[in-house]
Design goal:
This protein is mainly α and 222 residues long. 70% of the residues lie in helices and 0% in strands. The longest helix is centred in the N-terminal third of the chain and has 37 residues.
Length: 222
């Protein structure tokens, strides 16, 4: 029972630390003291710490098997996480007025949107992929609750961020940008920057594979 209570307490704290700082009145006060960059860095560090605590809590909750591992689980997880690494590398830090994680959003070119033409919220897609794939690969109750909730959290974020960005940009501007972006979808030769980002995604995936047994305690490939 103690393990479940600890897990539930960390879960509640996780959602509190993710929802309270981004509420407009609270965020304005924090940004006033540390600046936008300081807020982003601090919020990112807090999110990672709370995620690590959440995983720690799930590992110490009583083991209740919901489903066992099937032979096809691991190949899907390997391929899905590789795709997630490529999406993350290809989109993070690029201008994206529709979501978060971008930089210099005013420089966004709706006539040349890249992957943003196909996915408005790439970082939320990466989070949903990561969490959803880990639901598949971890069939005990605590981890199903953990990764299942994070998957729903990411998917719900699509609507929440859309509403927030519509309010910031204005509904007409948001709709116009979205229409231009969708009309400009195309598949062409990747630029040098895109190729470098793809290479970074591959390297990032290999680093995750190498660190997984060290940090999590289980190898990716058996």
């Amino acid at each position: 029972m103690t393990g479940w209570l600890t897990f539930a307490g960390i879960f509640a704290l996780f959602f509190a630390t993710h929802s309270i700082p981004v509420r407009p009145p609270v965020k304005r006060q924090i940004v006033r003291h540390v600046g936008p960059r300081g807020f982003t860095i601090g919020y990112s560090i807090l999110s990672l710490v709370m995620l690590a605590l959440l995983i720690w809590g799930a590992d110490r909750a009583p083991f209740v098997l919901v489903w066992g591992e099937a032979p096809w689980h691991r190949p899907i997880v390997w391929a899905g996480m590789f795709a997630a690494c490529l999406i993350l590398a290809a989109t993070i830090g690029r201008p994206n007025p529709f979501s978060f994680g971008g930089r210099n959003d005013q420089a966004f070119d709706p006539e040349n949107p890249g992957l943003i033409g196909y996915m408005r919220h790439p970082l939320l897609i990466v989070l949903a992929l990561w969490a959803g794939l880990h639901v598949l690969g971890n069939g005990d109750l605590a981890h199903v609750l953990l990764f299942g909730t994070l998957t729903l959290f990411a998917l719900l974020g699509f609507r929440i961020v859309d509403m927030r960005k519509k309010r910031i940009l204005g509904p007409e501007t948001w709709a116009r940008l979205l229409s231009q972006t969708r009309a400009a979808r195309h598949v062409g030769m990747p630029s040098r920057d895109t190729l470098l980002r793809i290479a970074a995604g591959v390297v990032g995936y290999l680093i995750l594979v190498a660190l997984h047994p060290v940090v999590i305690g289980q190898p990716v490939f058996l």
